[in-house]
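Subject: Interface between my chains keeps coming out wrong

I've been trying for a while to get a sensible model of this assembly. When I model each chain on its own everything looks fine, but I need the whole thing in one frame so I can look at the contacts. Pasting all components below, labels as-is. Any help appreciated, I'm running out of ideas.
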Amino acid sequence: MRRSCFPKFRLSRVMAWLQLVLGGLVIVVSISSLFRFYAAGFFMHNEDICLHFYSVKDVYDGFDIRALSDRVGEVLNRMESLQDKLEKTVQQLEKEKDALDKTITRLEYKNFLEVEVIRPLYSAHIALRQIRLPKAEGIGNSTMKEEPLINTFVIEEIRKYITPKKNRVGKVNIYGAEKIRNTIGHACVLMKKELEEYMDYDIGSYCKDDWNLAQKLMVNGCDPLPRRRCLTRASKVYQKPFPINESLWKLPDGRNVRWSNYQCRNFECLSSKNPKRGYSKCTGCFEMDKEKPKWVANRSVPVDFLISDILAIKPGETRIGLDFGVGTGTFAARMREQNVTIVSTALNLGAPFNEMIALRGLIPLYVTLNQRLPFFDNTMDLIHTTGFMDGWLDMLLLDFILFDWDRILRPGGLLWIDRFFCNKKDLDDYMYMFLQFRYKKHKWAISPKSKDEVYLSALLEKPPRAI
Ligand SMILES: *[C@@H]1O[C@H](CO)[C@@H](O)[C@H](O)[C@H]1NC(C)=O
Ligand SMILES: *[C@@H]1O[C@H](CO)[C@@H](O)[C@H](O)[C@H]1NC(C)=O
Ligand SMILES: *[C@@H]1O[C@H](CO)[C@@H](O)[C@H](O)[C@H]1NC(C)=O
Ligand SMILES: *[C@@H]1O[C@H](CO)[C@@H](O)[C@H](O)[C@H]1NC(C)=O
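Reply #2:
Try treating it as a single job with all components included. I did that and got this:
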């Protein structure tokens, strides 16, 4: 454990004590103006006393030291100004020593100051400084640990959300936990202004139509977002969805979407022919005639595999899976026709992708790249990915994503990398990333995309793991 320069105190005790000290200071100041004494210049300026013992580099695990240090900093400033005042008073008294009350000797005054004022003040100052030092683990039992982040936020609803909720009457809940902690992504702290705007509402009232603010927070790493206690807005003219035998291949009713944060006002407007459609990825996705041939008809590029070929590799074994990419659920629709259930990830980047997938009768999963996938280990038969993973992705980020996919894929499960593309010179690096798991290679195809870019498609099978 790291050494600190002072013994550790329980935070609450120190805070309570701090208030006492401040109260005491006020009294000291009053006393100093009542008595007349001299000892000017005795006070030390000890701002740097503890700085030698700890540095900014020290990390306090699980403890929001910055927020606390901000609070303490305020108190320290106030205390220092009190000290200055006290000092000035003493100097003033020094000048007016002729009027000194002759019944009390100078020595007595000096002793009084040293013992009764300066020493307590000095130790109080030191004590204040050590408030910056407590380490969560050092404070006491785990149940006594200071909760991180709460002091960071001012908006009451955020503070309520992140405060742990204890089970009633000291019971352990069905999950075996004593309390429930609601989580927020650490980037929420960096995006404090946006988060406070997001969490500023009247409980029980209608939320603002601010899903785009929420999404901005999410894609920047404030993910998961806090839950809210306001009612989400919905289309005033929501129509019942089409029956499943029609919905898969039909453009949904535009009245079922709130369009206010998009450039378009209906699904027809999202056509690739419209330059003002408001989104750039997956441009033909809202045209069913363009979507229908995908994965079922031979395409121009040799990197396109057919669903029938893939399913034939392990007949009947592929039942559930994840489609990680950008799209309107067409892959899931085709798989559904083969009695395979696919969950499709989607973000509403400029168009209502989530609503579209859901209105087609398929399952949209609203997750960002940041999140660990909400599936248990070794559960999925298939992961298909297309459309979003290409040359922009940071290698380390991709590595974390691939390991997460490996986690949820069952032994014998298939990873279908579909039309991944990157710069030719990066191909070796990406190939290494995909092949590092030593999956069985069923299919592997590379073809040129442009002068400098290449497509890569692969069908890989996760091997059984002995351990
Ligand atoms: C610390 O935890 C132990 C058991 O985990 C408990 O017996 C003890 O009372 C706790 N101490 C405090 C100060 O809460
Ligand atoms: C879809 O199914 C319903 C009954 O479930 C039927 O009335 C309707 O005609 C079907 N539509 C099509 C296009 O087959
Ligand atoms: C795709 O092309 C191959 C040979 O080029 C052919 O055998 C196959 O039937 C075609 N499939 C479809 C769906 O057109
Ligand atoms: C899907 O399941 C239905 C009902 O069990 C069955 O009639 C149909 O043939 C299946 N389709 C495929 C492609 O296996």
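Reply #3:
Confirming on my end. The beta strands are 165-166, 179-180, 320-325, 341-345, 363-365, 380-386, 409-423, 440-448, 453-461.
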